[in-house]
Amino acid sequence: MENGRPARRILAVASGKGGVGKSTIALNLALALTHRGNAVGILDADLYGPDVPAMLGLTRTEDAKEWPLWRRGGAALKPIERRGLKVMSAGFLLGERQIMPWESQALPFVLRQLLGGVAWGSPDYLVIDLPPGTADLQVEVFREASLDGALLVVGPQDVAHLDAKKVVTLLRDADVRILGAVENMAATTCPHCGERIELFPAVASERSLWHDGVRRLASIPLDPALAELNGGPPPVFFALADEVERALA
To answer: Which domains does the chain have, with CATH numbers?
Structure first.
């Protein structure tokens, strides 16, 4: 760990609400950064609903009997390596259907263990997949991680933009730099005629995230192929990785 930091650059991926594809964006971005020749770690910080392990085919079916919280300086957790990434998640330490056993007061200690108690090996980038919303866990990440920036993920719905604005307020209050946002599931293409289909009513300009001065870095369609990781990240994520690298250089 270099200068007490788990990585040279630390980027959080955030959203105001669940269901907008934030974990898919975070994982594909991390993979695209590895394809650019970077050493990359990804931390699934959603302690209540960790999805990154399942996306990588890393499922634990057996429930954990205990999860000791050790003192600073103890043995570090070893991340699991998959597709060139170093991956850590509460999903590796709990069964697939097991709930987080700790009360809310203990969750900051769990998060610190997953962030600072892991043998990351000082990668070039650590991508943190935040839980959705603006609760204590997000604030704890801002406090503990010394973020270099944050990337927002928003859906093309009015309520998604509304909730994302709350995250913007949280990030600005915490003095975290907002690199921009990805609009996910923006539209789809008819497989028969190739026509672009808008799935949701357009968000009024004055109610959008872009009206708050957040840059739109990418607009990603609703496409089942984006959930397939076997062929590597789709081209849009290489462009997004380029944007991130330039912003954090």
So the answer is: 9-248 (3.40.50.300)
